Amino acid sequence: MALKYQIVPVTSFSQNCSIVWCDKTMEGVVVDPGGDVEQLAVIIQELGVEVKQLVLTHGHLDHVGGTQPLAKKLNARVIGPHRDDNFWLQGLEGQSKMFGFPLTEAFEPDQWLDEGDVVTFGEESLSVLHTPGHTPGHVVLFNQEAQRAFVGDVLFNGAIGRTDFPKGDFNTLINSIKEKLWPLGNEMTFIPGHGPESTFGRERASNPFVADEMPLY
């Protein structure tokens, strides 16, 4: 598999930040740099990855808190999430106070992401799905060939994202999972925003929120 990744849990919320790269060119991206910027910078250097872009799945502080300082340190562009999460990014100062995080100032990315967009690095790419429900502008990134999806807080091993935040919606989230994620295939391994990896097939068989009693082969 030419697509490589390393998960680095960051912040007191143990958010799964992912360094993703093409092992032929060593160009890569960082998905959801929520914090612990110095640690991330050291690991990126040790891996030898040239990070061109930081990609955000949604606007919650534990996923985006380290974006601005890391972008500056790496001279990287910031892309995503979908523009419907702009209100979360503009409210980062308030989020910082609410969760007792270091002050994070509001920002806008260099580019919003829409469904059908493709994020490229080296000879690899991640395709974009718009998956509202947890937040209205949440996006998921996937590579069909590598059978990997970075799903932020849409879906977890045995659980789903919260929908009690502003503009969250339970039915919308369930539809995003069943209509956008399941068609990617049961073998697709996903990296959630928190906790261990799983596969869509395993969640379809056993996740109490979205299981469809599909037989496991």
Structural class: alpha+beta
Question: Using DSSP, what is the number of strands?
Answer: 13
In the sheet with the most strands, the strands line up as 6-7-8-9-12-13
Distance between the termini: 23 Å
In short:
With 217 residues, the protein is α+β, with helices and mostly antiparallel strands.
Commentary on this structure:
The chain has helices at residues 37-47, 61-64, 67-74, 86-90, 92-99, 170-181, 200-206; strands spanning 3-10, 15-22, 27-31, 50-55, 77-79, 118-121, 124-130, 139-143, 148-152, 155-156, 159-160, 189-192, 198-199. It is globular and about 45 Å long. The chain has seven helices and 13 strands. Helices cover 25% and strands 28% of the residues.
Write the layout of secondary structure elements.
Layout (H helix, E strand, L loop, with lengths): L2 E8 L4 E8 L4 E5 L5 H11 L2 E6 L5 H4 L2 H8 L2 E3 L6 H5 L1 H8 L18 E4 L2 E7 L8 E5 L4 E5 L2 E2 L2 E2 L9 H12 L7 E4 L5 E2 H7 L11
Parallel strand pairs: 3-4, 4-5, 9-12
Antiparallel strand pairs: 1-2, 2-3, 6-7, 7-8, 8-9, 10-11, 12-13
Give the tags.
5-stranded mixed beta sheet; 6-stranded mixed beta sheet; alpha+beta; 217 residues
